[in-house]
Design goal:
The protein is α+β, with helices and mostly antiparallel strands. The chain is about 25% helix and about 35% strand.
């Protein structure tokens, strides 16, 4: 196998391409599909397009996972013994995250006669998981993490989210005697 060594002059001053189709210029590296502009700057149109398509795919998968969670939550709530105390309100929330930018994500508010409970997407990128959602009454919160292989997991208990576990969460958040926050 041949090795290719760039001399310092080329690395610092002149764009050049090695035998593998990699451009080097001013210490920058780009694939051969990138173009060099008239001033020698690397135009990353192909790479940028690939990144954009990958980010779009990432967000489509994340939004689909959120919609699936919200549908599952509404189904579980409809089977609660005290289901008449709950109504589910679907909303979209504006989010902005690096590197995918701005997007709209579904959220759910379970309105009750006691305490509103939100199923709120926190973000697509979470340490150790694909994404994070909080279930909260703004006095107490439970964090769900999403894994493509394991689905939604309750972080505190390190257990998969099941209907039984969801009911336990709601029972802890649905506190009698707590009044709804006043809007100013």
């Amino acid at each position: 196998m041949e090795s290719f060594v760039l001399n310092n002059k080329n690395l610092l001053n002149e764009p050049c391409m090695d035998k593998l189709g990699i451009y080097f210029y001013n210490g920058n590296v780009a694939l051969a599909s990138a173009k060099l502009s008239y001033k020698g700057m690397i135009v990353m149109s192909d790479l940028e397009e690939t990144i954009k398509l990958n980010n779009q795919r990432i967000m489509e998968e994340w939004i689909a996972a959120l919609h699936s969670l919200m549908s599952q939550v509404k189904q579980w709530v409809s089977s609660f013994p005290h289901k008449d105390s709950f109504s589910a309100v679907d909303l979209m929330v504006n989010k902005s995250e690096e590197p995918v930018g701005e997007y709209q994500a579904p959220m759910l508010i379970l309105t009750t006669d006691q305490t509103p409970i939100e199923v709120l997407p926190v973000g697509r990128f979470a340490i150790g998981a694909i994404g994070r959602v909080d279930i909260t009454n703004h006095k107490r919160s439970f964090t769900l993490l999403y894994s493509s292989s394991k689905g939604w997991l309750l972080m505190d208990r390190r257990k998969p989210l099941t209907e039984e576990l969801f009911k336990e969460i709601i029972d802890e958040l649905y506190v009698e005697g707590v009044t709804k926050p006043e809007l100013h």
